[in-house]
Amino acid sequence: MKPLSVFIIEDEPLIASTIETALKKHRYYICGEADNANDALKDIYNLAPDLVLVDIQLEGYKTGIDVAIKLDELDIPYLYLTSQTDPKTILEIKQTQPLGYIAKPFTEAGLISSIEVAWNNYRKISQDYLLFSSNNQTHKVKQSQILYLKAFDNYCYIITNTNKYLVPKTLKHLAKQINKELFVKTHRSYIVNITKITSLELQHVILTNIKIPLSQANKSKIKQLLKL
């Protein structure tokens, strides 16, 4: 199994080094580090880590909470590193969606257990549900209820029996988040819930009364999945 890729945002070198040493010891992969918000976001865009550890207090005028807001937009999970529990900080934290918090000072065992518990919970939720933003609202939709996803320029439609969501993410981006055992690509612009396919035509898959384009390149794979 591929090791979890972690990006560390921490402006105290000793703490950053301690975290890196502990994570490497437990076979995590450190894909990058930064001590300020601007450098962190620039690297994260390029490296696309699985998980980010975010210190709330950083060098410069931007805080870890500013980074977290961007990570929420990018759908990249993160944990806060913090020793701050004042009411103002707590209020700001509530505007973001972290997997959890790692309180400073921490022990190696506490650090690793916090990451493992948070990541395990995140994986369980992400396998059953898809979290996304649409119309400035965050939605949590059970993946089994999704009929299909459709590309629309740099956006994507998520279609269920009852709703049609326009999401400011590409189909390629959302494809990384969905359950690979439940969804299959039928066409460069479509990903379909396998369990919703009721029949197969020459150039389409049928979802009850909905026709979805089927490319020749994907046809044999879908036949195999459907055992046809």
Structural class: alpha/beta
Mean pLDDT level: 90
Q: Outline, from the CA principal axes?
A: elongated
Helix and strand sequence: EHEHEHEHEHEEEEEHEEEEEH
List the total number of helices.
7
**Strand arrangement across the biggest beta sheet:** 2-1-3-4-5
- Which residues sit in consecutive blocks of at least 5 with pLDDT less than 50? none
Biggest pleated sheet: 5 strands, parallel
Strand content: 25-35%
Secondary structure: helix percent: 25-40%
Can you describe what's shown?
It is a single chain. The mean pLDDT is 90. The protein has 228 residues and is an alpha/beta fold. Strand 9 and strand 10 form a beta hairpin. The longest helix has 21 residues, at 108-128. It contains seven helices and 15 strands. The chain is 35% helix and 32% strand. The strands form four sheets. The protein has a five-stranded parallel beta sheet, sandwiched between helices. It has a five-stranded antiparallel beta sheet with strand order 10-9-8-12-11. It is elongated and about 60 Å long.
